[in-house]
Structure formats: C-alpha cells, structure tokens
Amino acid sequence: MSSAVLAGFFLSLVIMFVFAIRFPALAIPLGIMTYAYKQIASLAVPTFQTRGPLFNYMMAAMIAVIYLYNIIVRNPGVNCWTKSGKTLQVLTWAFLGFFWISIMWSPYYGADSWRFLPYFLVYFAMLPSLTESPELMLRAYIAVWALTLLATLGLMVSPAFHLSPDIGRLVVHFQVGQYDEGNPLAIADMGAYLIILSTCILLMQTTQRENRGLPKTLWLLAGATGLVMGLWLTFNTSRGETFTGIACACVLVSLVKGRDLAQYAKWMVYQVAFLAALSAIVFFSILPKNKIAELSWRYSASSMAEASNDRMGLSAKTIEMALSSPRNLLVGIGARGCEKRLGIYPHNHFVQAFGETGIIGFGMLCLACLLAFRFGFRTLALARQQAQQPTVIFAALMLSLFIYQLIVLSKKGSLTFVDTVMWLGIATFGFDRAQFMLERARDAQTSPALDGSERG
After folding, report:
1. What distance in Å separates the CA atoms of residue 443 and residue 244, rounded to the nearest whole number?
2. CA nearest 412: which of 293, 298, 307?
3. Three-class SS of residue 165?
4. Are 55 and 38 a contacting pair, CB within 8 Å?
5. DSSP 8-state code for residue 456
6. Which of 42, 249, 300, 384 pairs as cysteine with 48 (C-beta 3.0–4.6 A)?
C-alpha cells in the first residue's frame, strides 16, 4: 500500500508541474515544498537517494521551463507593477547582490560557493514572478494542500518513516544512497504549512456562500484532518515548527476575521473542534506506535533551555566577530564566513546577516522585511475597504506564511539557503499583484461616476 501511495504522490507532483505550464501560479507552492517533497519522492523513486541533488535539479528545471514559457507566451513582465512593490524588489535584489559580492572577502571563498547561485536565480528571480491574481493563487495553494495531504498519508503508511530513538524525532530512513536519514526539519516545515493551509481552508468555508465541487461539510472535514496531520508531523519532528505553526494559524484567523473573531471562535469550537476530534480518533487508531513520539525530553524545560542557550552562544560569537574590527562592522566577514570560522552557521539569519555582511547588509535585510510587512498590511486594509474577501484571505495567508518563515529561519536558517530571499520575493509579488488589482478595481468604480458628473 505504501508503494502505491508514494507512487501516486510522485505521479501527481509531475502532473501538477505539467499543468502549471498553463497555470503558472501552481509552481509557487510546489517550489516552496521542494525540500520536504524531496524526501517523500526519494521513497517513491530510489534514484533520488543515490543522486542527492537530482530532485532539486528537476524541480528547478521545471520552474525555469514554466517561467520561460510564461514570459514568451503570456509576457506578464518580470518586475512588480506597483511603486511599493518595485521599491521592495530593488532593495531585496540589492541585499542579495551585496551578499554574493561579499564572497570576494570571505574566508570561505571558493568555487563551491557559486554552486548556490542558480538556486537563488530560480527561486528568487523566477519563481515569485509567476504570481497571479489572489483567486488563482488561493486555488494553487489549495491544490498543493491536497497534494501535501497525500504526501503525509504516504509518510503515515511508509515503513521507512519511523521514530529515531537517538534524537526522539520521526525521520525518513533511506535504504540506499548518500544519506541514511532525511532532515526532520524539512518534514516539520511541511507539517507547519499543512496547519496554516488547513486553517485557510476552514476560513474560506466561513466566507463562501456557495461551494463548487465538494459539499461544505466535506471541506470542513478535510480541513480538520489536515490540522490533525499537520500537528502530528510537527509535534514529532520539531518543537519550534509546532509552536510557530499554531501561532501563525491563529494570526491568520485574526487577520481574516478581525472584529468578528469572537463569533468565529464560537463557530470553530462547535464545528471544527468536533470534526478535528473525530478525525484524530480515526487517525491515531490506525497509526502505528512507532510513528508517535512521547512527550519526552525534547519538550522538557531543560531541553528547550539548553537549545536556546546553544543558539544564543552561536549568535554571541557571530556578533563578536562582526565587532572585531571597523571593516567587519561595516561590510562583515563575507558570505559563509560564519560557517568557516564557527564550523556551523548561527541559528539566526538576522545575526548571520550582521556577521557576514555587516551593518550594510543587515540594514538592507531588516528594511526589506519591515517594508514587506507594511506592504502586506496596506494591501490587507485596502482589500477590507473594498470588501474583496478572497484578497483579504490571500493577503492574510501571505502575511502568516511570511511571519512563520521569519521566526523559523531565525531559529535554524542560513542565508546560504534560498528561503529568506525567496519568501521576500514571494511576499513582495503577492502583495504587489493583489494591490495592483485592487487599485484597478477601485479606479474602474470611480471612473464611471466621474464621467457622469462631467456630463451633468
């Protein structure tokens, strides 16, 4: 059964990418899931285990093909359309360019550093520009949410995904290949996305009077099941993703419902909680015991305090290196310098930006994040003003996912990975497209009124 489910997941993934050629918005959530889907696809296709980066190359190539087809055939442009979006895009590009230039004075200078550059070009330059209207983006996220449910089901029935007694986490254990175990944090990210997207599904059912396709009760049951599966994945793989995923789901609810939050909370208690409890009973009754971690030392106060102290120690050493000379304070020690000096990157990408790119890079990154938040909240306010509920949900979803990424990446991320700038790009283009369409709709409503007054 596990082989059939995993094969079905991989086949569905390929079909979605083919469909994304005509529906480019679908490539964005698929690209977000690259690192989590890699482990699950490796269980379905053992070739991905023996050749580590092959799946990454496949995903990047598919995104590049979709991007090129979209540019040649549809020609939507590669830049933002609003003034705020263009400013934020230029600032993020400036930070990314400075980060790569800093390789020149980094102690880790070498040809292997440049192998990361194609990923930045694909996941930051190409992927975010495939953003479409809020309605289409929500459909894309719903489609990938359904694929993620199938991926989670594949992990549930796969004997290769079981509890590791050494680290107390659920881990994918490979039979062949370069690595014996997968990265549990990538699976934890997938679980957190499942929590947030399932919450979005439930929110959409409170705002839509009509449902196309499945009845409303089935949508609610599917959303509640997604919550249960997401909580199971995150709880058994990472503390940080568990707490952050739940917190960002609550942020999503508060951003969408606003003043109606109390009324919605009552609706959630009576309907969603019942369906989630029903789903949990069925889910955990068929789940093998080796796929459930106990509330063990990982969730104890001493374990969490120890992990926090370790991260603070790495951050302190990074800041100390940055303050060691005026030159390091201004431009940093260079990209990947922390990895060379400390043996590991600091578990905080803002601290890493300060250590490796100095005040200049740190200032650009912080300013870009602040502008992204301002851009997002302005888009959300404009959507509420025009009573565009799909845009409200989409803007709130982007803000929630962006908040999740900043918190989680500040805990475990590295600037060498694409996540930081990728999410800045995705948030920028998402808010840009939504605000542009809102402004166009507002202008279309005011223009007839102006024409009528001029004629009178």
Report:
1. 39
2. 307
3. coil
4. yes
5. -
6. 42
**What is the largest distance, in Å, between two alpha-carbon atoms of the chain?**
80
User: Phi and psi at residue 211, in whole multiples of 5°?
Assistant: -120, 125
| Contacts with 356 (C-beta within 8 Å, 6 or more apart), sequence order | 99, 102, 106, 332, 333, 334, 335, 336, 337, 338, 415
Quickly tell me which residue has 């039979």 as its tokens.
175
Give me Rg for the CA atoms of the chain: 23
- Taking the C-alpha atoms of residue 392 and residue 314, their distance in angstroms, rounded to an integer, is 39
**Which residues, including other chains, have CB under 8 Å from residue 62's CB and lie 6 or more apart?**
17, 20, 27
- The two tokens of residue 340 are 């060379």
**CA–CA dist 227, 456 (Å, integer):** 57
| Each residue's pLDDT expressed in tens, for the chain with a length of 456 residues | 678 999 999 999 999 999 999 999 999 999 999 988 999 998 898 888 877 788 989 999 999 999 999 888 877 667 888 999 999 999 999 998 898 888 888 887 666 666 777 888 899 889 999 999 999 999 999 999 999 999 999 998 888 888 887 777 888 888 765 556 788 888 999 999 999 999 999 888 876 655 556 688 888 889 999 999 999 999 888 888 999 999 999 999 889 987 666 666 666 666 777 778 878 777 777 677 666 665 556 666 677 777 777 778 888 898 999 999 999 999 999 888 887 888 777 878 888 889 999 999 999 999 999 999 999 999 999 999 998 999 999 999 999 999 999 888 766 656 666 677 889 999 999 999 999 999 998 888 776 554 554 444
Dihedrals phi, psi of 181, to nearest 5 degrees: -130, 150
In this structure, are strands 169-172 and 161-164 parallel, antiparallel, or unpaired? antiparallel
Residue from 364, 369, 363, 350 nearest 428 by CA: 369
C-alpha 89/C-alpha 368 separation (Å) is 9
Which of 318, 364, 322 lies closest to 344 in space, CA to CA? Answer: 318
Rounded-to-5 percentages of helix, strand, coil across the chain: 80, 0, 20
377 vs 271: CA distance, rounded Å: 30
Q: Which residue from 263, 268, 186 is spatially nearest to 227, judged by alpha carbons? A: 268
Please report, for the chain, the start and end positions of each structural domain, with discontinuous segments joined by +: 2-455
Query: Residue 378 in 3-state DSSP?
Result: helix
Question: Token pair of 201, please?
Answer: 């599904």
The closest of 94, 97, 74, 96 to 86, measured between CA atoms, is: 94
